[in-house]
Amino acid sequence: MLTELKNVVNITTLSMTDKERMDVVERCYSKMKRYRNLVSYYTNKNISVSYLRAKKKNDLDRIMGLYGNMNERYW
């Protein structure tokens, strides 16, 4: 992906058309969006598992202190 970006901004390689440049940008955007969504999914999943395990052990105060309530969350 990094080499694709280098081809987009490299002024010496004028062989790419505008469509090819846009295709490269679109591919990079799609990959980054997919990675971001995966990170978000697994972060939320891990927090949910932590919450359920703490609830089972009656240790919710520790988890709520770690992750915060709905108003305190920054993620």
Keywords summarizing the entry:
mainly alpha, 73% helix, 0% strand
Molecular structure report:
With 75 residues, this protein is mainly alpha-helical. It has a domain at 25-75. It has helices at residues 2-9, 18-56, 60-67. Helix 1 runs antiparallel to helix 2 and helix 2 (18-56) runs antiparallel to helix 3. The model has no long low-confidence stretch (mean pLDDT 82). This is Conjugal transfer protein TraI. It comes from Bacteroides faecalis.
Q: What fraction strand?
A: under 5%
User: Order of helices and strands, N to C?
Assistant: HHH
Main sheet?
A: none
Mean pLDDT across all residues, rounded?
Answer: 82
What overall form do the CA principal axes indicate? Answer: rod-shaped
What class do helices, strands and sheet pairing give?
Answer: mainly alpha
CA-atom Rg in angstroms: 21 Å
Query: How many H/I helices?
Result: 3
Report helical residue fraction: over 70%
Q: Would you report the number of β strands?
A: 0
Q: What's the end-to-end separation, in Å?
A: 27 Å
Low-confidence stretches: none
Short synopsis of the structure:
The chain is built from three helices and no strands.
Secondary structure blueprint with pairings:
Blueprint: H1 2-9, H2 18-56, H3 60-67
Helix pairs in contact: 1-2, 2-3
Protein name: Conjugal transfer protein TraI
